[in-house]
Specification:
single chain; alpha+beta; 6-stranded mixed beta sheet; globular
Length: about 270
């Protein structure tokens, strides 16, 4: 594993709180602040992962090895754009046939790693500095409206005793407010979800009348409201639609698009 800081063939430049790291299959993105607590990475198009459960096994094995676990210890979920949170219990292991249905997953054992996939939605990784627990979250517009990021913090508090101020959070590449054109119905959907007061901050209107949604700001605000300290929230600010040569983007590539992963593993005690 080597840094890409001096590589002439650079992927797009992230926020200064992130760095590119070279893997055998290509670059992965890491957040040093999160890395001080837990092993993790965000992948690019360089690792060919698919969203279905039948292929990409070799790629998932390589990804699991990147954080130091075997593929049988990599636990994922069936993502449905909701707010359900699955907590991995001791001894749980990866089984493609019995994945839980959830858009967030929490782990406490250093023998496990958890991951979510995305292709424009926001992949969010969390780690508890005090307890060592971690979580991976998939937040598209539906999950964001439902408050999945805040629900994940709430689940860590309720089940593990996490103190929100102990959390370090990193947002991986996803569609940015520069490109995420949405329909008018989303304003109503967010209002029905109980976050109408946030509409002016999270939605913007272009001169031509188009409406855009800022998923980064929405999830950041929700995490801060849940008790995460603002300076412990790190957003890569890499738009998947702007940089579709490096990232999978549903908006750019269509329904046949591949998936990128965000993976995190608790640090050994």
């Amino acid at each position: 594993m080597t840094s890409l800081a001096d590589d002439g063939d650079q992927p797009p430049r992230p926020d200064p709180g992130f760095r590119w790291v070279a893997r055998s299959w290509g670059p992965t993105l890491e957040c040093p602040a999160l890395g001080a607590v837990a092993r993790h990475c965000f992948t690019t198009r360089g690792l060919e992962l698919r969203r279905d459960h039948s292929d990409g096994v070799g790629a998932w094995s390589r990804l699991a090895a990147a954080v130091g676990v075997g593929s049988e210890c990599l636990i994922r979920t069936v993502q449905v754009h909701g707010r359900d949170v699955h907590v991995v219990t001791a001894g749980t292991r990866f089984n493609r046939l019995v994945w839980p249905v959830a858009d967030a997953i929490i782990a406490t054992e250093a023998s496990d790693a958890v991951a979510v996939v995305a292709a424009d939605c926001v992949p969010i990784l969390l780690a508890d500095r005090r307890l060592g627990a971690v979580a991976a979250v998939h937040a598209g517009w539906r999950g964001t409206a439902a408050g999945v990021a805040g629900a994940t913090v709430g689940a860590m508090v309720a089940t593990l005793g996490t103190r929100p101020a102990d959390l370090v959070v990193a947002f991986g590449p996803s569609i940015g407010p520069c490109c995420y054109d949405v329909g008018e119905e989303l304003i109503e959907a967010f209002a029905h979800a109980g976050v109408a007061r946030e509409v002016d901050r999270w939605f913007s209107r272009l001169a031509d009348g188009r409406l855009r949604l800022d998923l980064w700001a929405a999830n950041r605000d929700q995490l801060i409201r849940a008790g995460v300290v603002a300076h412990d929230l790190h957003v890569s600010r890499l738009c998947t639609a702007c940089h579709a040569e490096s990232f999978h983007s549903y908006r750019v590539h269509g329904v046949s698009v591949g998936r990128m992963a965000a993976i995190v593993r608790p640090a050994p005690a």
